[in-house]
Write the structure tokens for this entry.
Amino acid sequence: MIEPQDAAARRAVPPVICYPNDTLPQPDLALYDSARAGAVKVTEVQVAPRDAASFRVEAGQFFRITSVDGPQVGDLNLWNAADLTERFYSGKTRALHGTHITRGERMWSSLPSLRPMATITDDTLRWYGFDSFGGSVHDVIGTRCDPYTGNLLAGGQYHHCCHSNLIRALADETGLPLHEAERHVHDVLNVFMCTGFTRATGQYFMKASPVRPGDYLEFFAEIDLIGALSACPGGDCSTQHSSDVAACYPLLVEVFAPTPGALKGWGSPALNGYDRTHGRGPVAGRAG
């Protein structure tokens, strides 16, 4: 293929940020930090290697995901506890914040709600930044390892990938049959996973996670949540997905409740303010 004469000039056009985020509503991190200082643990769940577990967090509580025994990544799904159709929207979170998220950034919910579900308040791997390969931690660019892609690329039936793990966890939490629970499982926040895109081909890559026992990622629940976390069968994702031979370790989820009055002035974010008319007049009976 012959390049056009102006190829260099076309490549040199500077980029434009798609969604300037300086007008996003900002979390009151000072308030959250103050509330967290006096919070007490109310529950915990340990997620077994190559499996998933669910948990519930009330609006105004904190939840922490910790590496406990060895380097391990986790795939996190979140839902509105009262409405499973409002769920974490990884694509919009990526568009608003970037490919990887950390303290002060938020997990946004799906359309039409589009509001903060959870805010990251602490991250012991924040020091990692971006490495020389373009890799960073806690990505919203990957999907989740699943049996369909595994079957497509390699054949076989593998049932303990993150997609299937999350389905079982949600089904057990809600009583839904597996086929209905599967409709609600969605693209994840890859907790502790170190990922990026190759410079030459733009392919999604993973590398050994820098997480070590005691590292954690902590969140503030902006609304009542159901969460599900899968301890990925790839372990620290230094070799391959969906493996029965990778070293895998448990993850710990803890929930903390602030003392009464610690969040004075705070309230759950409202649903997105767009009127949903889409150019065709008012929507009858729409609830706020």
Summary: Residues 162-174 form the longest helix (13 residues). The first strand starts at residue 40 and ends at 47.
